[in-house]
Amino acid sequence: MFRPRVPVNPLPTGLVTPLVQPVTTTDIEPRPTDEPTTCGLDHTPAPVPAAPRVQVPAVRLTPTGLVAVVASGAGLVLVVGAVLVSMLLAVAVSAASVAVCAAVLRSLLNDQHRR
Predict the structure, then answer these.
(1) Average pLDDT over residues 66-94
(2) Partners of residue 16 on adjacent β-strands
């Protein structure tokens, strides 16, 4: 009940084989060794070259550049605000039209029940 079931892989030949073949090996035992084996090769790590330091120039704005950055930021805020207000207006107009349609349908259905 608690053992997992291994899915099977159907082959085009019609033979069904499990995905994992069970392997049992009992003849492998660990061997403790006291001395390390040497292969005669040099295994010292290679020296890491120093990364060259790149000087990043500091951002320096002239008064004209500062005015341009402030003006573009203000323009961006105004454009984003206009887009958001227009989306809000579109939602409000849609809600009003749905409300008018609901009122007209309610009036028509109530008038039909009275007759």
Answers:
(1) 96
(2) 10
